[in-house]
Amino acid sequence: MRVALLTEGARPHPQRGAGGWCDRLAEGLPEHDFELYLLTGPQGPTAGARPAPVWRGVRETALWGRRPGGRPPGALRRRRYAGAYEELVRALVLPGERAGFGPGLYRLAALAREDGALPAFLASAHARRVLERTWRLPGADTPAGPPLVRDVLVAADLLEQCLRPLSAPWYGTGPGGLGAADLCHVVGGGPAALPALVARQLHGVPFVVTEHGLHLREQYLGYREAPYRWPVRALLLSFFRALTGETYRQAAVLTPGSVHDQQWQRRCGADPARTRVVYEGTTAVDRPAAGPEPAVPTLVWAGALEPGRDPELVLHAFARVRAELPDARLVLHGEETAPGYRAHCSAVAERLGVAPAVDFAGRPAALAEVWEAGTVAVFSALSQRGPRLLADAMLSGRAVVSTDVGVAREVVGPTGLLVPARDPRALAGACLALLRDEERRARLGLAGRLRAQERFAVEPVTGAFREIYLELVSQYPAFPGGGGGGEGGPAPRPFARPAEYWLADGRVGAPEDGGGDTAGAPEPAVLAEAR
To answer: How many CA atoms lie within 13 A of 490 on its CB side?
Structure first.
């Protein structure tokens, strides 16, 4: 089948690009044709970047920076744009009109598809007047204070960028159009879900949403330090909250990366019946376990040097460990993300009298080297939002001690020690218990490695999405709008290859127009296993 993968970021992606999650998904499902749709930065396509060969096509549109060119709409069309834009803004600021977000969004998308003048309208003085008038209506939800003129100007520019995917040249049933896809797969949520929502509205194409770390939660955390006044932050957060709610309502299936994220999605209105946890697979499961332990008892810690990771807790706990085991050492790996915080932690270590045994090692070349140099891996975060770092430590075979927050209990389970946050006595006791018991360290380390290999292997991830894709296309009609081939094009096919293509004994004689390109097809043994 044809799968449109929608995500946000610049190519090549550190997390989602070559060798990343999206590539691994496409490589693991070679029976489907994947096209990548990217919302990129202001520079557009990265110079010299080449898409991975797993993609049938890569399409990009700029989400940030200078708005696309184009003529503004005429007077009649401008009134229609203004009506749709006002409906959307009223849904953001008036508590009684929240339900108008979706209709206003789809009206804007329909108008943009007709003449492509949406960016020009959103950047016009008329749109700013609509925003200002609606934002200042009696009863508007403005707990952060009434907006000033400069707030209107800033918010208008930010909303124009957020709504820019509605003007992307991706809609329709012709080649490259989302209406020609069997389904859309949104990775990351947020603005990347806008094209999928429009394709669902215009063409009935179902879509899946995968979030490894919730987009809305990250927006709330990020906007605490955004360089805007509070009225602007409140309006933008209202937009992302409404977009998240509409995405969760319209998605055919939601696949959070953890049970912890699943609970957050339910609080945001997700239907539990359409939610399935699919852990983020990693190729690190094939990495060998760490070698022999260091000669002296060593605690290793990895993460950003910031208050949320609470390295101070580790320092206070280590002072207690050092009092019991004078030879113990502590190595902290990570970059400073809060200005002056590393110097603050160094001062704490000096005050506790453990500075000679503490090493601030900076950013590691590879995570495997971090765990290799330690006896026990320690995590002290106040909020453990993602499972990747914990899983990587477990895959090393080292025993793990973590604060019992976020996904820690779900990931570590009975294979490590969990302690309350902000409790140096409990953390020190857990570390001492493992440092003094080599047999227990080895047993928990092996159990943690096996648990992480089972949960975070790539194969179960691709298998889960294979089932989800097939289930969805069995419930939704292919090309309900009757498109797929474009005007004058061939008749649409609901799947990229017929079932006979995957039969080992029928490949050779398969008709050329039915099987598509056979380059790089699986060997007969792989085909037999797939059956």
So the answer is: 6
* DSSP state letter for 181: S
Measured CA to CA, the distance from residue 43 to residue 32 in angstroms comes to 30
The answer for residues whose C-beta is within 8 angstroms of residue 125's C-beta and 6 or more apart is none
Structure token pair of residue 361: 């090692």
List all residues 6 or more positions away from 285 whose beta carbon is below 8 Å from its beta carbon: 395, 452, 453, 456, 457, 458
Spatial contact of 369 and 290, defined as CB atoms under 8 Å apart: no
CB 494 within 8 A of CB 182: yes
Task: Give the residue ranges of DSSP H helices in 171-305.
Answer: 193-203, 215-222, 230-250, 259-267
| Conformational region of residue 309, where left means phi above 0, alpha means psi within -120 to 50, and beta covers everything else | alpha
Q: Enter the tokens of residue 218.
A: 């990250």
Name, in order, each residue with C-beta under 8 angstroms of 331's C-beta and a sequence gap of 6 or more: 298, 299, 300, 301, 358, 359, 361, 370, 373, 374
Q: What is the pTM of this model?
A: 0.85
Q: Any idea of the CA torsion for 67, 68, 73, 79, to the nearest 10 degrees? A: -40
Q: Spell out the residues 6+ positions from residue 498 whose beta carbon is closer than 8 angstroms to its own.
A: 510, 514, 515
Please check whether residue 77 is in contact with residue 111, taking contact to mean a CB–CB distance below 8 angstroms.
yes
Block mean pLDDT (10 aa), the chain, length 531: 86 43 92 92 50 78 77 91 98 96 97 92 96 95 89 96 93 88 94 96 94 92 89 95 97 96 93 95 93 97 95 98 98 94 97 97 93 97 94 98 97 97 98 98 98 94 94 72 47 52 45 40 37 34
Chain centroid, CA 334 distance in Å? 22
Residue 273 tokens, joined? 């019946």
SS3 11: coil
**Amino acid letter for position 307:** P
